[in-house]
Design a protein that fits this description.
Layout: E1 5-10, E2 19-25, E3 28-34, H1 47-50, H2 52-57, E4 66-69, E5 72-75, H3 78-96, E6 101-105, H4 113-123, E7 131-133, H5 140-150, E8 158-159, E9 166-170, H6 174-177, H7 187-196, E10 200-204, H8 210-213, E11 217-219, H9 226-239, E12 250-251, H10 253-259, H11 265-272, H12 276-288, E13 292-296, H13 298-301, H14 306-319, E14 329-330, H15 338-341, E15 347-351, E16 358-360, H16 369-374, E17 383-387, H17 391-394, H18 398-405, E18 410-414, E19 427-429, E20 450-453, H19 469-484, H20 494-504, H21 517-521, E21 527-531, H22 536-539, E22 547-548, H23 552-556, H24 558-563, E23 572-575, H25 591-594, E24 602-604, H26 606-611, E25 619-623, E26 628-635, E27 643-645, H27 660-664, E28 691-697
Parallel strand pairs: 6-7, 6-17, 9-10, 9-13, 10-11, 12-22, 17-18, 18-19, 23-27, 24-26
Antiparallel strand pairs: 1-2, 2-3, 4-5, 4-19, 8-14, 15-16, 20-21, 23-28, 24-27, 25-26, 25-28
Amino acid sequence: MNDTTTHYRACHLCEAICGLAIETRGEEILSIKGDALDSFSRGHICPKAVALQDIQNDPDRLRQPMRRNGEQWQAIGWDEAFALVAERLADVRERHGNNAVAVYQGNPSVHNYGLMTHSNYFLGLLKTRNRYSATSVDQLPHHLTSHMMYGHGLLIPIPDIDHTDFMLILGGNPLASNGSIMTVPDVEKRLRAIQGRGGKLVVVDPRRSETAAIADQHLFVRPGQDAALLFGLLNTLFEEGLTRTSPLPVMGLEEIRAAIAPFSAEAMSARCGIDAIAIRQLARDFAAADKAVCYGRMGVSTQAFGTLCQWLVQLINLVTGNLDRVGGVLCTEPAVDLVETTSGGHFDRWKSRVSGLPEYGGELPVSALAEEMLTPGDGQVRALVTVAGNPVLSTPNGQRLEQALSGLEFMLSVDFYINETTRHADLILPPTAPLEHDHYDSTFNLLAVRNVTRFNQAVLPRPDGALHDWEIFVHLARAFAERTGVELKPTMAPEMMIDLALRHGRYGESSEQRLSLSALREHPHGLDLGPLRPSLAGRLKTSDRKIQAAPPVFLGDLQRFAETVPGSTDQLLLIGRRHVRSNNSWMHNYHRLVKGKPRHQLLMNPQDLNRRGLLDGERVKVRSRVGEIEVEVLASEDMMPGVVSLPHGWGHGRPGVQMAIASGQPGASANDLTDERHLDALSGNAALNGVPVQVGAA
């Protein structure tokens, strides 16, 4: 076959959902480029999109079910695999109870609509309260804040980046992340456009990140103390009369003003490491802007006061009149609206067995997973199902989790790699590759900076004998239901679910757009449904349809904040970092992404190196309460003194991993240093930033 075909679809490896033009000849990928006609990304792509070819052709990617036999793996048939899972999990439940089976779902789950629509078709049958996911190492404070304030954990206001005059970013590096709870392709041009129209970009970060490097102002902040800065900003806004009245129905603002009165800029300055004069000036500049956005992302979520940080971010936008305002933060109105079609969530209906951590939305904080496996007693976890996740590298104290995994009675992984986690599984079920199945971005359209929609058709045919993710879960459900005598509800293919959602959504059959799946197929470059607009008042899901600005559980956490004494300023604190060529732990096996200079070193300010008699480029040992790693250190003036930075997702040198390129430059795992006891006590989210460490010669 000599004919070439160009396919159009979005890349779904990260949140930006950039449009692609993929040229193929038969089943050979000839090129992957940005789609200049894409309604959202405007031709922009990042290096990850080009790596789709490496994923497709990766010889290490599993193509059939694999069963572990000691240290060896053998291929087995699908029917045998499904029967094995049903028998082993049913046996564990019958002997030890439903909660003896745990589930962990990784970040790629939300990048695959088949997992979104069908994973619970099987996992829900397990009836376990031991459900975990990457949410609690990443973004749980976002969801809990929206749940408490707006009545739904997915009703998250998004920065109106294309119309704002002032953007304040804390704990975010969108030039590396391509957004993150702000789906925003081509983000650098959008940020520079703020400056081009006379606006201002301010970044607060313990590292002068790629985004900070293009900002008008960068402020170093002490890791784990962003809440102190935010309290100082909010207090200044109240003290100096810089607030604006909001047309939104709001409850509790006066209560907040009184509660945070002790947390003035002067009182918070030493704690966050920023001069009180600078805090007050930042508050004045933010309030003076006609349209402003305060945006806090992963760096402020993954710390001991992560939920307070996200609450304060919302309050700063609210009291300056920038919540639900063009150029401020706005909620999306997507074609498939999960806010309208799903429950608003629940919090603290039960707690973890050992440490008493609260659930959110039916999930427990993943920091509790290892102890639930290792601690004997009624309800001890004895079997685990992992889905598209690698918690050994992505959750706190990975070495302890490894110890826990080795003692399980049975472990199933739905994944297409033998990685640091799945090497412990008894059975691995691999789905089709990204380009072999269709896709709809129900999650990231909900978080996008414009209302957009598209249906992504498969680029390559499904190989003979392969199953899509959703089909794997349907077969697992059928086998488990037959083994346990449960009657299954009927289901349908994901694309049929999306078609129904489109037809009955706000742009569906009763609207001018009349969207349906067939209509989207006629728009391979996607459809732009318009800019974000004020809509929050009509979308609130609180019982009284008012914004709850002062949830009692948040006010109750102020005492913990006030009583917490920051550690010595002589102590080194560890933070993470992201890179545009990396995505958590699973994108290090592709040559196009890992070529060039290594990017997994420890960054350290030269002053800190000199104090310890260390040299730029040498091997060092980094120690924390939970472990020790050895890594190369690089001197960097971009680091705040007293702070060191190590990217997460590395550490591929463990035995049994079958990812040749990743194992060739393994790096060290930051989560061999992070501490499962160091968390946000309010939400249970892991506190991966601000971890105390010591650094010395190797």
